[in-house]
Write a structure and sequence with these properties.
heterodimer; A: 375 residues; mainly alpha; 2 domains; two-stranded antiparallel sheet; 15 helices; globular; B: 59% helix; elongated
Chain lengths: 375, 440
């Protein structure tokens, strides 16, 4: 492209932005941000940044930050918080069985504001999981997996998977007694799954928790899984830009950019405020160091693995058919858009069925927590 | 295939035969060496040995090296006395040049029984045994090379066993009752009757319950159930000989109980003698250790025992009873202070705040409380208070210090309030900016 047919008007003002503008494609850099959900309107990256921003501000914005759509952006904000606190934790954490506990304790005890970083990261994990699961449930119940939102649905199911894996790998890292044994029991269950069990344990570094598994979990938790999560954000917003926002549960319609900006700040402030309040008012206790020789009483698999663990321990004869069912149901969830294929009668059948199974799973999880507690 | 089977069968046969041949070759050619277990009647079927074998059954077969030693030490006696020969071969004496005739006289070179038994003492009397053993064991020249003491016989004669044996009491224990006669071994040998692990059972053969063949009350069962018996496996807790002595064993004299116990329980003895019952009560039967703790059935005492022990002699509600309770209260107050501090430290660990120093201080407090316990033997409040106070003070100090440190955590609430104030302010400013722009 020659300078003559460049549609960009020459920057009139001469400020810092213009200084950069002459040397850098600022609008393209800005457009990168839009891939993570901060801007929704189409962008003409040929415009200079000031003009682009003025254009974006003048356009109406879908009220993306109203309930229940806000769950999507809340996931982004929470993931951002987790990334920042995670990087801070990684500055001090040492992923070896000898040093993991001591370094985590140093973070929580000796490093200034380390306690806040650790508590926010720990509570953020729960909130992130809750946001992803709630978003998945909302999309399922509103039938938002149908064409043309298949990819949105897949990326959301995959996000659910990744966030559970993040939680599972993160449990082991502090090398506390409860984390160690919870992961040990979880790994036993995962390793017993047909087909996927051997693959998952191969990725995780083995079925017995040791220094190899710890290091592997550290790599998965800090690099592979967050990378995957970010890629899924990209996929989600790229899909959204094509298929548009949902119109099923309209709440608020259209707002201005200013309102949108205000809502974004409000959300950030609220999320950090809620996390800080939880960290101060309900601090998660710092427990004893892992002792691979002593199994503590009342240790359970992570809650999302309680039902399979329960079947494996109490109904060993049913384990193989049940485990096959667990694996198959994951595939069914993933390929739900193709199974329904816009057929309204099938769709009407799928939702109550899925809701029933979900409620059953929750009831079994609660029952499992109750049963396992006494062990 | 069949060749392989044949080879294996042949190998098995050889394996079964060869050791027997080897055994036969190692054994001396004397008729006694042919296995008495399998052929109790050797070629010389007549004689007293054969008759005893027929009466008492087969004798356990000694090992080859024991047979060598036995043959050397028992001479021809073993031909007719295989059981004694085998016992003797197991013992230490057979290896030290002692022979049958050393104790029994007679001759071990004569083949004819009458000539061999001439001048022999078949069974030395109980009164004579100590002197017989002492003929070597009291001789410094003979014992010197082994580094063995030579005062055992003299000690034995002072003991209750020796006193009764000298009066020809048939029940009095002599050397051979504890050490064995023919098979005696050094105390360091685990097979020895006098080895640390077996010693108490040897005493129990006479001093155990009548049902077990003993004559006395079941002091063994009492001891086993006691705090000493329960810890005897470690070898540091006293068995019978720990208190009663070994060769000079005797019942502990009434006035000496404190000294006997004080060998290990030094602090208790010091408190007992400087301020306790022993110091204030001049009667000969003034309560000593056994008065509260018992003699054989000694159980671990806690400060709570002070409530039950005193009223065994003193009236309930008396000033002695209330003194016991007051002493108990001193200990339990200190223990409680330590517990409170420990609970607070555990709470601090869960936050976490640094507590390593406090863990060490709590250990100090627990040690201090343990070392304060003997003070109760003074039967006075002041020493108990002085001793327990230190533990109490450390507990309080840790509690206050940890509490102060945990107080710092409340700064987090301050931070939270500041955050929300800031957030509120920010939102108000932003809200006004939004309204102004939409109005404009």
């Amino acid at each position: 492209m020659s300078a003559d047919d460049d549609p960009r008007p020459t920057p009139a003002r001469s400020g810092l932005i213009e200084w950069f503008e002459r040397r850098l494609q600022l609008s393209e850099l800005f457009s990168f941000l839009s891939h993570f959900g901060f801007v929704y309107t189409p962008l003409d990256t040929r415009l200079p940044l000031r003009e682009l921003l003025r254009q974006v501000a003048s356009r109406p914005v879908s009220s993306y930050l109203r309930w229940p759509r806000v769950l999507g952006f809340a996931t982004t904000v929470l993931f951002g918080v987790m990334t920042v606190t995670g990087v801070l934790l990684a500055c001090y954490y040492q992923p070896t069985p000898e040093a993991a506990y001591a370094s985590t304790r140093a973070i929580a005890r000796d490093v200034p504001i380390g306690w806040w970083v650790r508590q926010v990261h720990a509570w953020g994990a729960w909130l992130l999981l809750a946001a992803v699961v709630a978003r998945l449930a909302r999309f399922f119940l509103e039938g938002l997996y149908r064409a043309p939102r298949e990819i949105l649905w897949w990326s959301m199911v995959a996000m659910g998977w990744v966030v559970v894996q993040l939680d599972f790998t993160g449990r082991l890292l502090p090398w506390t007694q409860s984390g160690y044994w919870s992961v040990t029991r979880g790994l036993e269950t995962v390793a017993g799954l047909p087909l996927v069990g051997p693959v998952l344990t191969w990725i995780g570094g083995g079925a017995a928790v040791n220094e190899v598994v710890l290091l592997r979990f550290h790599v998965l938790h800090t690099m592979v899984l967050p990378g995957l999560f970010m890629a899924l954000f990209f996929l989600t917003f790229a899909t959204l830009r094509r298929v548009g926002l949902t119109t099923v549960s309209h709440a608020g319609g259209v707002t201005t950019s200013r309102d949108h900006f205000f809502s974004v700040v409000l959300l950030f402030v609220l999320v950090i405020g809620v996390l800080t309040t939880l960290a101060v008012a309900l601090p998660l206790p710092f427990l004893r160091a892992a002792d691979p020789a002593v199994t503590p009483k009342g240790v359970t698999a992570p809650w999302y693995l309680i039902v399979p663990a329960l079947v494996r321990d109490r109904l060993p004869l049913l384990w193989w058919p049940m485990a096959a069912l667990f694996v198959a149901s994951t595939l069914v969830v993933f390929f739900l858009p193709f199974l329904v294929r816009g057929d309204d009668r099938r769709d009407a059948l799928v939702r109550p069925l899925g809701l029933g199974l979900g409620v059953l799973w929750m009831l079994l999880t609660v029952a499992g927590l109750y049963l396992e507690r006494g062990r | 295939m069949s060749r392989l089977v044949r080879f294996v069968a042949l190998a098995a046969l050889i394996a079964a035969v060869v050791p027997r041949q080897g055994h036969g070759a190692a054994a001396p050619p004397a008729p006694a060496a042919t296995s008495p277990a399998t052929s109790p009647a050797p070629t010389r079927a007549v004689g007293p040995g054969a008759a005893r074998l027929a009466r008492e059954g087969p004798v356990p077969l000694p090992r080859a090296e024991e047979l060598d030693a036995a043959h050397a030490a028992s001479g021809r006696c073993g031909v007719c006395h295989p059981r004694e020969r085998a016992d003797f071969a197991r013992g230490q004496h057979a290896r030290e040049g002692v022979r049958c005739v050393s104790c029994h006289r007679g001759s071990d070179t004569q083949a004819e029984p009458a000539a061999a038994h001439a001048g022999m003492t078949a069974r030395p009397s109980r009164a004579a045994v100590a002197a017989l053993c002492g003929s070597c064991h009291s001789d410094p020249q003979k014992m010197g090379p082994y580094g063995l003491p030579v005062d055992e016989e003299a000690l034995y004669r002072t003991s209750e066993h020796g006193r009764r044996a000298s009066q020809n009491d048939a029940h009095a224990a002599t050397c051979i009752d504890c050490h064995g006669a023919h098979e005696s071994l050094p105390a360091s040998d685990p097979r020895s009757l006098t080895h640390r692990a077996n010693r108490d059972q040897v005493c129990a053969r006479c001093h155990g319950a009548p049902a077990a063949g003993g004559t006395g009350a079941d002091v063994m069962a009492q001891w086993r159930a006691s705090v000493h018996g329960a810890r005897s496996a470690g070898g540091k807790s006293p068995g019978c000989t720990g208190c009663h002595g070994v060769h000079g064993s005797a019942p502990t004299a009434a006035g000496d109980v404190g000294k006997v116990c004080g060998q290990c329980h030094g602090a208790e003895r010091r408190y007992l003698e400087t301020g306790g019952h022993a110091a204030t009560d001049a009667r000969p039967d003034a309560p000593q250790c056994a008065g509260c703790h018992g003699s054989h059935a000694i159980h671990a005492q806690t400060p709570d025992s002070l409530v039950t022990s005193c009223v065994r002699c003193h009236r309930s509600g008396s000033k002695e009873d209330s003194l016991g309770r007051a002493m108990r209260d001193e200990y339990s107050a200190a223990a409680e202070a330590i517990d409170v501090a420990a609970a607070l430290v555990a709470k601090a660990d869960a936050i976490p705040v640094p507590t390593e120093d406090y863990h060490a201080r709590l250990d100090d407090a627990r040690r201090s409380l343990a070392s304060a316990r003997p003070a109760a033997h003074s039967v006075a409040l002041a020493p108990v208070h002085e001793a327990a106070h230190q533990a109490h003070a450390i507990g309080d100090e840790v509690r206050d210090s940890v509490g102060q440190k945990m107080g710092l955590v409340s700064e987090r609430w301050l931070m939270l309030i500041v955050y929300w104030l800031f957030a509120g302010l920010l939102l108000v400013v932003l809200h006004r900016w939004r309204r102004r722009s939409s109005a404009g």
